[in-house]
Model the fold of this input.
Amino acid sequence: MKSKQFTPDEQAVLEDIMRSRRDVRGNRFTQQGVDSGVVDKILQSALYAPSVGYSQPWQFVVIRDHAIKQQVVDNFNLENEHARTQFSGVKEETYSKLKLDGILEAPVNIAVFYNQSNAPVLGQTSMPEVGEYSVVCAVQNMWLMARALNVGLGWVSILNPEKIKQTLNVPNQHKLVAYLCLGYVDEFYERPELELLKWEKAKSKDSVIHYEEFSQAE
Ligand SMILES: Cc1cc2nc3c(=O)[nH]c(=O)nc-3n(C[C@H](O)[C@H](O)[C@H](O)COP(=O)(O)O)c2cc1C
Done:
């Protein structure tokens, strides 16, 4: 075998990075700056992602400017207020206490866009949405690379995507896939924060994995 074989120790490191990855919000980011070399490594990891037909349909906008972040946070605040009203009772009360972004607190924000091809793309002809899935693969690479570099990353989706495009001067055929907040943290939680706060429970392995056919076990 000519290609690189990973050792059990290296395999364990990858699993550890996956297990330790967390969504990080403004309550955990520190003031420590993230230098451009580190941001570049995270962006480079995105470019290693698989993409349908090797279309590489991604575009990234790196934002450090406070005034731009302020426009994004204004967008978030409006959308988040609207989101809160979609829950009721105890959930609404809990929702209003959740910190669901880190736009201003994170030194670096990265907006990730899908750039739809005008020509047919190999593999994308039956399920057009796989173009966007390719961009999500890139985001997951960034999330894992950031964790390996001990940088926290949070995904903010409570945003009006068209307004984000206006704010960042993004051409019309692009679609916002992810808005990411990156920075060093004072702590990575052991478990997802929404689990610690009892918003959601972890699903058991048995309840989500099926063999040969979908089983409807209660
Ligand atoms: C597509 C996507 C969108 C998300 N949007 C938000 C968001 O707007 N705000 C937020 O606080 N977390 C957001 N998250 C983070 C999830 O809440 C988080 O991944 C989940 O609670 C599990 O926690 P963990 O990532 O720390 O394991 C998003 C995650 C994904 C995959």
